[in-house]
Amino acid sequence: MADLILGQVLTFTGDPFAEGLAAARHLRHGAVLVEHGRIAAIGESAVLRATHPAARVTDYGQHLISAGFIDAHVHYPQTAIIASWGKRLIDWLNSYTFPEEMRFADPAYAGAVAERYCELTLANGTTSFCSYATIHPESVDAIFTAAQAQGQRVWAGKTCMDRNAPEGLRDTAQTAYDDSKRLLARWHGVGRLSYVITPRFSPTSTPDQLAALGALWAENPSCLMQTHLSEQTDEIDWVKSLFPAARDYLDTYEAHGLLGKGGLYGHAIHLTEREKARLAEVDASLIHCPTSNTFIGSGLFDMGGLKAAGHRIGLATDTGGGSSFSMLRTMAAAYEVGQLRGRALHPAELWWLATAGSAQALHAADCIGTIAPGMEADLVVIDLASTAAIEQATRRADDIWQAIFPTIMMGDDRAIHATWVGGKPTAR
Ligand code: GUN
Ligand code: ZN
Q: pLDDT class for 393, splitting at 50, 70, 90?
């Protein structure tokens, strides 16, 4: 049976960074028709009600219906160590992250955290995410199994590390290749799941391992590849000492077949001019993780400059280096980072980044990230007056952007009134 969902509707027909507000479509009394898990129509409520009288109606009143949020870079295994105090990147990895990731050798533990993570994402209106697992193949099975149960469109991959990580958290060039290949064959393209080739970052992979994963990517070009790039200056110095022949950090990937369209480069803060030019030339995706960049003290991503230069950019929490599971909180942090760089991001730009922008970064804009006929029906329904503080700040709003901005800046999971995945409302 078809579902007709009523409320305010917000979506994008283009990129507001390039086209301004003409890229946004807002319907004050809108409707979304959902059939067989996909969006069949979007339009004025009165029109769709008249043309689809048999549809089951869910009326969300003044709540805002948007494409579900898409989190383009997360570490689901770091769910339990989110908000760990006092460390910068390398110490944070050694003190908190690696000991926690060690626990994923136990499939029962991996399964429990994976389920918890999927529940947390849905409570925050996130219908898709792209996650690192741990080095343990079972940790990939765990997150795909949990996502499959919820029906979410999810990307994930086995994190590969063969040096500078503790005993018990290292693979080899060969086992990284073999395990990734086996997992890819098992999961890539199964339902809404996609495998991502995942070298953690250059400091934890030997050149041999990077080359092996570069070869695997060349053999499987329909896969995305994710890694980290130029997050902290100490990390960049470390990469220089480990790869003395490399021109720069990006070159450590490029030299091993790990630079290309379909490559997702997390953080990308301290880039040289050559790195920026190469990333743009190959149309790689840069993933901005603003709560992580302030929490771990990494630096300020240059959204204005990189968008103006034509880079493909997604938005992400980077849980648990990031300090939130919420894409609303992440938009707020992106706004604050933009302010510190002298570029106030418009609410339309922030919302686009969390939906259509991340979908483009993941090369999935043909199926998720916007509300249009044929798209998969992943939706979030937002209460734009979810707390007393937000409600009073929106009372004088003249347009959707003024009405939405207090929720961007102050909203949390209380603003998530409902989340639809694959055409079905999720239980709350
Ligand atoms: N660089 C390498 N691994 C990680 C990680 O787990 N989190 C963050 N923020 N940066 C990294
Ligand atoms: Zn990360």
A: very high
Backbone angles phi and psi of 108, in degrees to 5: -65, -40
Q: Residue holding tokens 């979030």?
A: 380
Contact (Cβ atoms closer than 8 angstroms) between residue 131 and residue 154: yes
> What is the rounded average pLDDT of the residues 298-309?
98
At 62, list the tokens.
């003044």
pLDDT at 427 over 90: no
pLDDT in tens, 209-249: 999 999 999 999 999 999 999 999 999 999 999 999 999 99
Measure 393 CA to ligand 1 centroid, in angstroms.
36
For ligand 1, atom 9, which residue shows the shortest CA distance?
321
Q: Does 318 contact ligand 1 (Cβ within 6 A)?
A: yes
Angle of helix 137-150 versus helix 173-187 axis, rounded to 10: 20
Residue 428: burial class (beta carbons within 10 Å; 0-12, 13-18, 19+): exposed
CA dist 89 and 345 (Å) reads: 27
Token digits for 246? 């490399």
| 291 C-beta closer than 6 A to ligand 1 | no
Complete DSSP assignment for 294-352: HHTT-----HHHHHHTT-EEEE---BTTBS-S-HHHHHHHHHHHHHHTT----HHHHHH
Mean pLDDT over each residue of the chain, to the nearest integer: 98
DSSP assigned state of 376: B
Largest CA distance in the chain: 68
User: Which listed ligand is nearest to 165 at the C-alpha?
Assistant: 1
What share of the chain in percent tops pLDDT 90? 99
DSSP state of 203: G
**What is the pTM assigned to this prediction?**
0.99
Q: Which ligand 1 atom lies nearest to the CA of residue 204? A: 2
Cα 221 from Cα 338, distance rounded (Å): 34
Pocket probe for ligand 1: among 71, 73, 75, the residue whose CB has the most ligand atoms within 8 Å is 75
Q: Is the CB of 238 under 6 A from ligand 1?
A: no
- Is any atom of ligand 1 closer than 6 Å to the C-beta of 45? no
Question: Does 85 have pLDDT greater than 80?
Answer: yes
Structural domains in the chain, CATH included, are: 3-68+369-425 (2.30.40.10), 69-361 (3.20.20.140)
ipTM of the complex: 0.99
